[in-house]
Each structure stands twice: as structure tokens, then as C-alpha cells.
Amino acid sequence: MAPHRTPDSSRRSDRSRRAIHDAALALVGEVGYARTTIEGIAARAGVGKQTIYRWWPSKAAVLMDAFLDLSARQAAEVDAAGADGDYGIPDTGDLEADLKLVLRATVDELNDPAAEAPTRALAAEGIIDPALGAQFVENLLDPQLQLYVTRLRAAQEAGEVRADVDPRVALELLIAPLTHRWLLRTLPLTHAYADAVVDHALRGLLVRP
Amino acid sequence: MAPHRTPDSSRRSDRSRRAIHDAALALVGEVGYARTTIEGIAARAGVGKQTIYRWWPSKAAVLMDAFLDLSARQAAEVDAAGADGDYGIPDTGDLEADLKLVLRATVDELNDPAAEAPTRALAAEGIIDPALGAQFVENLLDPQLQLYVTRLRAAQEAGEVRADVDPRVALELLIAPLTHRWLLRTLPLTHAYADAVVDHALRGLLVRP
């Protein structure tokens, strides 16, 4: 029973939550995590700060939800475009093609200017603050990594990937080089690089490379 | 000609520089990069802030020198212990053994509690600030990565590594998984993990895995 949650008030709540998420992402991108406050988010979203405190215990919780919401929106966009993005790795029976598709989509997400500043702010904060970092890994990263474990296990069962490969280690050879290049800006993060990483990694994983 | 640089004043300068480096590393680890100031470094090092301004144009320059000095000291310790650490990859003719030695030493460096806080602070700041990140890559990271390129090229010339491997891509499959695990604290960073990364990566790189 939720007597006050009429369809109209529910839509208003959704609109407020989305406005708060967007304000949090924009602010943290502009002024950094340390200087982002609940008051600042409330002012930018056009809501009272009590509205935020009613729904979230801390700014870290707001930001984490904002990122989960952003990820879900990006996944929906990718789904609408007919690909699977990061949120389910296709299994066409061709591991190389499936991984290249997904890692190219990851390159596009990392290079998306709208997400870059808040993603860098959250990553930087997680590097300093172990508690925030653990939330980031648990809520955002691990669910994605698990998709690689699932896809690599399927390839093992299909006899495509060697039985002695540890999928949890193998996925880091695929993912970490992209993250490394993006975080440290060592060299351009391109589709060609994603393909090269898959080519180099797969030769060591496949039964018949 | 440096008429005032008698041996004694030179030793005093070296002591002051070292004190300033140590103060900068300690402060940035304790209060973060943003709240570290030239004044704070000077106070902690027991020198006047004009001493710092005479030698360095900015706090970023102080910190970068402090890290270069720290890296050089760590390399000297590793050398003294009879290994080569990050500063020259041995070439015993056995690429697997050489890489495992170096990557285990990297694991030890990353897990060193004395270096952890300032290294995380500098990494986090570089993720946010492209100019500082570029200095970090140019002065600290690229010289290390180049050692892997050199060692992998030698292994190609020796016929051990496939001719179609791009050393600059291959090294990221070796290095990035360790950095990824350390930065994001996804899973423990151990010698066993370093060995597993080498095993997985090398199978794809060797002519006869």
C-alpha cells in the first residue's frame, strides 16, 4: 500500500530523481567530487535538500545511483541501436567477433565526452577512498566483469577456449589495457586498439589460435 | 663555475631537497594533492618557502621530482638486493622467468605501504588533470614501459616472440592488469596473480608456447 503514490506523483518522483542524478553528474564533473555537496546538487536540480536526504544517506550514494542510472540509460541506447554494449556479451559462436564488438562499444563509452568528467571524478575518488572504491567495484564494475566470465566459460564449454584458462584472469587481459589507456591517457583509445588487444589476448586463450 | 657550491653547501642542498621531497610525499598522502601547498611542504621540511620557489616553479614540479627521487631510491634498494626491479628488465634468455621477476617486483612496489598514499594521490590527480597526467606518463611511466618494449624486441630478435606481435600493445597486456587491480582494488594483487598474467599473456606472444 502506497496511498500517496498516485501515477502522477510517481512520475513527479521519477522526474525529480532524474534531475538529481543529472545535477550530481554535472556538478562532480565541473567541480570534482570533494567540492560537490548535497546543497549544490539540490540547488542545481531545483529541489529542496530534504528531498535528497529523504532518498539518499550521502552524496556518495546519490552519485552511485546517478552512475547506475546513466549506465542503464546507455545500455538502453545501445540496445535500441541493435547492439548489446557492455550489458550482455553476445554469443554468436565467434568469440573474437563478439569480444571486438563489446570492446569497441566500451571504447566508445569511455570516449563519450558527456560521461568523461564524472567518470574520471568517480574513478579518482575511488582510487583515494577505499570505501567509495569498493562501492564502485561492487555496483558498477563487477556486474560487467561477470559478463566476461560468463562468455569465456561458454567458450570453454564450446571447446573454443583452453580448459586451463582462468576466465577471471583472462578478462583482465582484455579489459585492463583499455582502462589503463583511458585512465592514464598514454596513447589514443581507438577501435583499432581494442581489436589489437583482442588479437593479442585471444592467441593465448584459444585452443586453436 | 658555482662559487658557492662548496662540498658542504652541496651536501646541505641535497639534504634540503630530500627533506622537501619527503615532506611533499608525506603531505600529499595525508591531505591529498589539492590541499598540499608549497607553504605546507616548506613548514614540514623545515625550510623557507623561498627555498622551494628557488628550485621549483610549482607544487606539481616538486611532487614529480619527489616521485622521481623515490623511484630512484627504490631502484637502488632493489639493485642492492641483487634484483633489477622496474629499472631494467633482465635478459637471461628466458622471457617468462624475466617477466615474472619484474612483475613480482612491481607487485611489491605497488603494495609498499610507504609509497601507496602518495602514489594513489598522484594517480588520482593525473586522472582528473590532463597536464599533470601527461607529466606523470612522460617522466615516470613511459621510461618504464620502454624497458618492456626493449625486452620484448630482444625476444623477437631471438626468435622467442612472434614477429607479428606489437611490443607496445603486448606490454599493456602484462602491465595493465596489475595497475587495474591495484587502482580499483578489485582482487588481491599477489605474486601468484603476476605469474598468472605472464602465463596467460605469453601463450599468445611466444612462437612455441
UniProtKB/TrEMBL annotation, chains A, B:
DNA-binding region residue numbers: 37-56
Residue ranges of domain HTH tetR-type in the record: 14-74
Keywords, sorted A to Z: DNA-binding, Transcription, Transcription regulation
Name of the protein this chain belongs to: TetR/AcrR family transcriptional regulator
Matches recorded under InterPro entries: Homeodomain-like_sf (IPR009057), HTH-type_TetR-like_transc_reg (IPR050109), HTH_TetR (IPR001647), Tet_transcr_reg_TetR-rel_C_sf (IPR036271), TetR_C (IPR011075)
Highest classification ranks of the organism: Bacteria, Bacillati, Actinomycetota, Actinomycetes, Kitasatosporales
